[in-house]
């Protein structure tokens, strides 16, 4: 570029000012935004799921404090359900609900189910207590827990616990695999298959 061209260029550019609001963002900012969006989406999903789980006494089927309760979805094999009822599956996580208010218990139960699945757990122990003297109905928390568990899609089955785990004041709960664990299982099973 000659001296004349440079002079012309500088004259033309003399009134140009840098942009004050640079709209570009760094990869870190994009990642932080994506994480915040995911957290917000997760919170909204949780709120939606929780809103489906009633906290109204008149909407639950009351069970007695000493009733043995059980539930299994279609597709759960009888042998698997029998093992669950005997407490044969290892239980690493216990969810304590018997001292909580109904709304708190609902949130804790739902969150603990999700966390347990993310950690790859398939069986948890939910301790709801017997509640023989609770008002307005006996076994208030137990009745709510039984109703909620039947409505949570991630629950495959549940059964009252053996005496050493709390008897009719607790439940063995079998959970579905998380999506990540399903992918891992598919990959593991696929590696074992030899392609000719």
TrEMBL record:
It holds the Pfam family Smr. SMART domains: SMR (SM00463). NCBIfam families: endonuc_SmrA. InterPro entries: Endonuc_SmrA, Smr_dom, Smr_dom_sf. Gene3D superfamilies: 3.30.1370.110. Residues 97-176 form the Smr domain. This is Smr protein/MutS2. SUPFAM superfamilies: SMR domain-like.
């Amino acid at each position: 570029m000659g001296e004349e061209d440079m002079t012309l260029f500088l004259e033309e550019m003399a009134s140009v000012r840098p942009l004050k609001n640079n709209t570009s963002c760094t990869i870190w900012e994009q990642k932080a935004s994506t994480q915040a969006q995911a957290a917000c989406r997760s919170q909204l999903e949780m709120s939606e799921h929780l809103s489906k789980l009633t906290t109204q006494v008149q909407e639950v089927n009351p069970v007695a404090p000493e009733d043995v309760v059980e539930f299994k979805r279609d597709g759960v094999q009888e042998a698997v359900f029998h093992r669950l009822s005997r407490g044969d599956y290892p239980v690493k996580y216990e969810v304590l609900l018997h001292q909580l208010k109904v709304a708190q218990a609902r949130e804790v139960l739902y969150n603990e189910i999700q966390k347990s699945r993310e950690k790859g757990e398939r069986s948890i122990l939910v301790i709801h207590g017997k509640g023989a003297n609770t008002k307005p109905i006996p076994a208030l928390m137990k009745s709510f827990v039984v109703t909620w568990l039947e409505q949570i899609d991630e629950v495959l089955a549940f059964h009252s616990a053996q005496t050493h785990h709390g008897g009719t004041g607790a439940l063995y709960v079998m959970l579905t695999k998380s999506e990540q664990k399903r992918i891992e299982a598919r990959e593991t099973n696929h590696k074992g298959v030899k392609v000719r």
